[in-house]
Every structure is written in structure tokens, then in C-alpha cells.
Amino acid sequence: MKLRTWATFVASAVVGGALVLPLNAGAFQRRVDATACFAGGGPFQAQGGDWNIKNNNPNAILNLMCPLPDDDSLLPQNINFLNIHGKAASSVGGITASAQPCLHFWDTFGGTCGTSVSTNVQNSQFALSMGHPSIFSSANFNHFKYINVILPFSAGLAGIFISN
Fold it and tell me: Coil, helix or strand for 46?
């Protein structure tokens, strides 16, 4: 009888202990601040204030390259949702901000981009949302992934929300 009681206790302790161990639920989210982005060409951006990066040049668009995290916690091929947050201060209607998933090749010069999303921005916050970028699935996993964000005059970028 004592052996049976002891065996039941040990089995219950093992099962109970296994149930309280922390497990990875599989969902992962990450936010990337706009200051991680690189402005390609020209002194068009101002940092600080209401925007992290803002296009101050009325004669040109601001092209930002924003790197995506690429580690074991959030592999780019597992990204299911991207949301790019920004703000526009212009009262001029019909200006457009856009974003597209891209990659730089690791083994040669060059890169390529996927399908872009865009939205009209005017005196308000805006979000550019995209589902899983197919370019990340079909690409060699060693390539470097980023989001190309194009901002019109007076529009700024706050950051990027990433989720798997």
C-alpha cells in the first residue's frame, strides 16, 4: 500500500511540475522605432518632436530603409503582420505614403522588393498594414530583410509593429 501511495505521489508531482513550466505559446510581437531606419539620400529628415523621422523637404519624397529583426525569436519567414505607423501634418490633400517589404542579397550586390501598400495622408496619424510578405517566404533565408517606407513632405514615421 505504501509503495502504491508513493508511486501515485511521484507521478502527480511530475505531471503537476510539467504543467507549470513556462512554455513558448508561439505568438511573438516586436516594435521597431523609426530611429532604426536609414534615410537614403538628402537631408530631408528631422528627428524628435511629434515624429521620430519627418520629411521636411517640400520638393522631394523621403525614402527610408527600416531593417527587420532577424533572430530565432522572430524569423522573417514567420512574420504574419506588419503595421507601419506615421503622422502627416500637411493640410494638402491627396499626398500618399507607402511601404513595401524588401531584401538585400547576402551573397551578391543588389536586392528586390515585394508588393507595396499605400494610403492617403492628411493632418492625421496613418497606418500602412500588410499581411505576410510573400517575398520573405520565397527568398533565401540568409538575405537581409527590411521595409522600404516612402514619405511625402510633412509626413513622419513613428515605427513598425511586427507580429507572427
Answer: strand
